[in-house]
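Researcher: Please translate sequence to structure tokens.
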Amino acid sequence: MTTLHITNGDCAISLLREAGIQGDFLPWRDILHMGPVPANYSLSALSDIRAAFISSLGWGELEQIKADFVERDYKLNQAREYAQIVFWFEHDLYDQLQILQLFDWLADNPKVASKSFLINPNKHITHHCVSEITSLYDSRKPVETMQLQLAQKAWQAYRLPNLDSWQQMTNQDTSALPHLREAIIRSLHELPASTSGCTQTETLILTLVASGINEKTLLFQQYCKCEKAPFHGDSGFYWYLQQMSNDQPALIDNLDDKLSLTEMGKLVLLGKQKWQRRYQAQHWLGGYCISK
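Model: Translation complete:
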């Protein structure tokens, strides 16, 4: 076997193949900024937790999702058989969390680490044209011990039941993974603000709906333009949007698939009211349950 390419999903793999990148491909499918990511679980045990969460969102049957995780983890363990492993990941929160998980595993597998390389641009891989992919591949750099040590520390901090260690990471040297600090800061903005009770994503949704965007597909497209480093996929974004209608008092009305602000939504957006929400579903950031 020659090269195993590990990246954030199927769209990136399609582009790599179109560009003529040779080898086997492993999409690391998981939305680690959503749902529980608790500490002190093995990769396979954590995968079971993640499968249960993803199934709870209605995104597939539990047994099939579990089987997909088993296949994914098996392929990762097969990395030992390859001459080279190349990690293709981006700068946004979604990808940075995946780097942490994978590099935590890599730190415990030094023989694999010794033949691993990282490609980590500050632009989404799928936003590159085909002709740029070869240059990206040529720019790959060996994974360094400092990167693995930082990833292990950050991955442990993210999964703790309180956010103290995760927040403290922003005051430490994270330059070994140059996009990590911004990703951590962005993740912390997914906590409810003390003034409005809304996260940054929820505040942006209120702002965009108030501006007249009343259809969810257009809303997601505009989110992607407004977010500095978009990390929500469409399904995850729509889940958060739905919670703004489900949680009481609701901030968003969705009548005949047309979005509008409720009276409470208008007051919250104007800063005249704090959203004292009653959660209908659990919200998490790593190992910390926001909705507890």
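Researcher: Any highlights?
Model: The chain has a mean pLDDT of 97.
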